[in-house]
Amino acid sequence: MRLFDSHAHIDDEVYDFDFDEMLHRAYNGGVEAIMVAGVTPETITKALKIAQTNKNIFISVGMHPHEAQYCSDDIIDGYKRLALQYPSIIRAWGEAGLDFNRMHSPREIQEKWFLRHIDAADELNLSMIFHERDSEGRFLQILQSMRHRERKGVVHCFSGTKEEMFKYLDLGYYIGITGILTLQKRGDVLRELALLIPDDRIVIETDAPYLTPVPMKNKTRRNEPAFVRYVFDRLAEIKDVDADILAETLWNNTCSLYSIR
Q1: Per-residue pLDDT tens for 97-107?
Q2: Which of the listed residues 24, 32, 87, 149 has the most CB atoms within 10 Å of its CB?
Q3: What is the 3-state secondary structure of the chain?
Q4: Are 235 and 177 in contact (CB under 8 A)?
């Protein structure tokens, strides 16, 4: 059984003191590939070094909506150059999107750079890693207005409604499921919706070091790629399917999403 953590931040400083051990635990646990989602130029520089020195680690380039106020044309152009220089490592664009929950960046600035991220990803034919939180329908409105039949993408850490989920699926996107699925109360709605996601349009992720799943949530606050197994186990239980078949389906989904062969 092989698993693909489709979204993690193992470039975070919380792994600096035991990075090799953390990665060893992931590989030993059947996690054979990891996508490190980019959020700033600094984290992407670090993630690139990690990917260059470790097997089956891929990265994306992007600017988290929290950091949108610090984005610029020079940063976008720099990301493009990196993607062209390291095509076997940089397999996606993002994470990018809208987050109106904490408003670390003004709404109009978030929207401006989200549009630029979409244009850049389309220009390079890279899949997108989308971030959405409390955007009051604006995120979906932008995606619908910029519909592109060849664009691949994943709505990372999906937490929306059934209606929104089906609209994302209609646009051709994948749905990213995190450790929220394992949480007793917070995961109730997600567990119901997970049953409705077609098997060929779902991927699993940790979003490490965040969103630690049960039962590890009771032991440590820091999530890590090895823990994606708990997300997988809960998903297999909910869908009531053969674990080996589901694992291979999820692996193929993630490879297809990021155009990895």
Answers
A1: 999 998 899 99
A2: 32
A3: CCEEEEEECCCCHHHCCCHHHHHHHHHHCCEEEEEECCCCHHHHHHHHHHHHHCCCEEEEECCCHHHHHHCCHHHHHHHHHHHHHCCCCEEEEEEEEEECCCCCCCHHHHHHHHHHHHHHHHHHCCEEEEEEECCCCHHHHHHHHCCCCCCCEEECCCCCCHHHHHHHHHCCCEEEECHHHHCCCCCHHHHHHHCCCCHHHEEECCCCCCCCCCCHHHCCCCCCHHHHHHHHHHHHHHHCCCHHHHHHHHHHHHHHHCCCC
A4: yes
Q: How many CB atoms neighbour CB 199 within 10 A?
A: 12
Q: What pTM was estimated for this model as a whole?
A: 0.97
Which pLDDT value is given to residue 206? Answer: 98
The Cα-based distances of 150 to 106, 119, 131, 239 in angstroms read 30, 13, 20, 29
pLDDT surpassing 90 at residue 128: yes
Cα separation, 94 vs 175, in Å, equals: 15
CB-CB contact of 9 with 44 (8 Å): no
What is the distance between the alpha carbons of residues 3 and 77, in angstroms, rounded to a whole number? 33
Q: Which of 137, 138, 91 is nearest to 110 (CA)?
A: 138
pLDDT of 161 over the 90 cut: yes
What's the rounded mean pLDDT across residues 71-78?
98
Amino acid at 183: L
Two tokens, residue 104: 């670390």
Please give the backbone phi and psi of residue 62, each rounded to the nearest 5 degrees, phi first.
-175, -175
Nearest one of 243, 256, 157 to 200, comparing CA atoms:
256
pLDDT number for residue 158: 97
